[in-house]
Structure formats: C-alpha cells, structure tokens
Amino acid sequence: MGRSVASRDDDQSAPLRSGGDTPEARDTRARIVETAERLFRLYGYQKTTVADIARELGMSPANVYRFFPSKGAINEEVAASLVNRLLVTARAIAARPEPATARLASVVRTVHVQSCALFLDDRKMHDMVAVAMDENWRVVQDYIDAFVAIVGTILAEGASRGEFAPDAAASAKPAFGAFAAFFHPQLIEQCLREREEGDLDQMLRLVVRGLGGDPARIPAG
After folding, report:
1. Residue 97 contacts residue 90 (beta carbons within 8 Å)
2. Crossing angle, helix 138-160 and helix 100-119, to 10 degrees?
3. What is the pLDDT of residues 144-194, one digit of tens each?
C-alpha cells in the first residue's frame, strides 16, 4: 500500500474523460467509491493511492481516471456517501407523524450518536473527513445546506401547528449552528473532552425556547 502514482493522485485539475452516464459507468463509479472507502478504512486515507484502488478492482490507474479526474474526486464521493447516510436518517425522522419538537430532538440526538460512531470510532475515516473539512470540499457545504433544509422543514411545520414562533423556520441555520459541536467531526472530538452528561439536552431546551417553543415538549432522551 501507499505507492504513489506520479502527481495525479492530488491533481484536482485533471479532466474527466468518462463519457456518458450509462448504467455500466454508474456501476463502475460506485465500485470505485466502495473500494476506496474499504481501503481508507483498512490503511488510512493518506496511505491509499489510486494505484491501490485500481489494483483491488483489477484495472489500471488510467482506467480509474476515466471515471474520476483525481484522487480528490474519489475522496469527495466517499465523504458524500458517509454524510448521506446521516441525511437519510435525519430525513426519515423528520417525516415521522410526531410533534415537531419531538422530531427536532430525535434528529439532533440520533445524528449526534451516528456522527460519533462514524467520525470517532473509526479513526482512519475521521482523518479523511478532517481533510475534507480542511480542503473545503463541496460535500461539506452540501451537507450543511441539506441539514439546514431538514431542520427548516421541521420548524416550518412546527410553526404551522403553533409549536414554534411563526418565523421559526427563518432560524433554521442558526439552530443547526447551535448543534455544530455535536455534529462536526473535529468539534465532536474536541468538545467531548470537556462535555458533561446532559449538555446536548440542555442545548435542545435552549434552542426550543429560543424558537418560541416549549422545552417541556422535548421527549426524555
């Protein structure tokens, strides 16, 4: 593991040569991403090269570059796959037929637990996501935007039912920001050292109250 492939592994400007969007091409891209994630978990993000990924798939590095212009592009897809799992869970909770306050609390608690498992329990994947944050990959902003939209939907529905203030949905982004320390891969690690039991529920009560809601509506954790 870890052998380099000239400078192409880090070349973000290499052109994408894969033409079309056929089922075969989509399948190949998916296999590349799945293989990359597996190798990242085994050997680490920094030590895995495009040559390693290609060898596992039984293809040449040049063939991998037909589907992804750089190692960075593969990494971005792996990161997108990871955070999409969190978003799928959050959307499913947001769609439940429950009071908005209960859904907001469940989303925050569940995503926090899954984020800890995803970003902290697997140190090698944590390192990859940390690079994504440092390099400001598009997937990071997409994740934030998607999560803010989920929170906004919950707040809008809660406002329509009188659970929150009429303009609560406009505070979706600040509400998300209030929980950043419980979601952000690097902040989770830093804050866990000083966090005390009950801090998340305390923040939930503070946010719900700030949105014009009643903290008593928050289900027991």
Report:
1. no
2. 160
3. 899 999 999 999 999 999 999 999 999 999 998 898 888 776 666 655 555
C-alpha Rg value of the chain to the nearest Å: 20
- The pair of three-digit structure tokens given for residue 73, joined into one six-digit string: 């592009």
Interatomic CA distance for residues 53 and 152, integer angstroms: 39
pLDDT for 66 beyond 80: yes
> How is residue 206 annotated by DSSP?
H
pLDDT, residue 15, reads 39
Helices and strands: H and E segment counts in the chain: 11, 0
The DSSP secondary-structure symbol of 60 reads -
Q: Tokens representing 114?
A: 């899954």
pLDDT in tens, 107-122: 999 988 888 777 666 7
Q: Cα(35)–Cα(29) distance, rounded to whole angstroms?
A: 10
Q: How many residues would you count in the chain?
A: 221
3-state secondary structure of 139: helix
Whether the CB-CB separation of 176 and 108 falls below 8 Å is answered with: no
Percentage of residues of the chain with pLDDT beyond 90: 50
Using DSSP, state whether 10 is helix, strand or coil.
helix
Phi, psi for residue 154 in degrees, rounded to 5: -60, -45
